[in-house]
Structure formats: structure tokens, C-alpha cells
Design goal:
By secondary structure, the chain is mostly helical. A two-stranded antiparallel sheet has the order 1-2.
Length: about 140
């Protein structure tokens, strides 16, 4: 941080800004960013800033999330696909099926699907290089 402050102070007095950036091993873009931040915020602005976005543009509005949960509570046996279809019928547009699934999982309103037993199919068993095939329920 001390190096950034030193850079910003020299940047205010220098005539050859790019040479100063080269001396400190930073790009001109970074140098201008530090200089502007120093002018705008002073010494406090020279520290590392969070890289986390200030907002999430794809985030669903709270009223939509509440409506998704309301519909699921009314139809507990339905999955995200059917809940989304009902939402579309009532409101026109809707988020993706995966968004519905994510919201319902976060609310604890989903269950893992049970695996159904195979009624008719084929499995192959290899034992010591020998292939044994069997048909289940022919």
C-alpha cells in the first residue's frame, strides 16, 4: 500500500506518466486507476477493494421467489417443471426451470428422486475376462 501511495504522489508531479508506470511495473490503466482513486478518496482509497460484484443482475426479485414457494406449497408433489408451467400460465413470463429448482432446493422443498427398479433391460457381467450376459425379465 505504501508503494501505491508513493506512486500516486509521484503521478501528481510527473510529466511522463507512462515511464512512471513502467518504473513501478504497472500498466498505464492501473496507474490511472490508482491516481484517480487517490484524488477521489485519498490515502484510504489506495487499499485493495473487494472484487465481489455490488449487485447481481440475474438475481430474481423477492416477490417472484415468494410466488414460486407459494405455488410449491400448494402442490407439494409437483416438481420444478410443473411449478414453472403453472407460474407461466398465471404470470406470463418466468425464470428458467433450473432457477425454479434452485429456489425450491434453497427453501428445502425438494426431495431426491427415487430410483425405479429396472423392469426390462440387459446387464453384462465380466468375470475374469469372461463375459456373461443376462436378460432381466425377458
Amino acid at each position: 500500500m505504501e508503494q501505491r501511495i508513493e506512486f500516486a504522489l509521484k503521478a501528481l508531479r510527473t510529466l511522463n506518466f507512462r515511464a512512471l508506470c513502467q518504473e513501478y511495473g504497472v500498466s498505464a490503466k492501473t496507474g490511472y486507476k490508482w491516481k484517480e482513486r487517490f484524488l477521489r478518496e485519498g490515502i484510504e482509497g489506495m487499499g485493495e477493494e473487494s472484487r465481489r460484484p455490488k449487485s447481481s443482475p440475474e438475481q430474481l426479485p423477492e416477490d417472484e421467489v415468494c410466488e414460486m414457494v407459494r405455488l410449491k406449497m400448494a402442490h407439494l408433489s409437483w416438481g420444478p417443471r410443473k411449478i414453472r408451467e403453472l407460474y407461466v400460465r398465471r404470470h406470463g413470463e418466468a425464470a428458467s426451470e433450473s432457477s425454479f429448482k434452485r429456489v425450491l432446493e434453497r427453501a428445502g422443498l425438494t426431495q431426491k428422486r427415487r430410483r425405479r427398479p429396472m423392469k426390462c433391460g440387459r446387464w453384462i457381467l465380466r468375470v475374469g475376462g469372461e463375459v456373461r450376459a443376462s436378460v432381466v425379465n425377458p
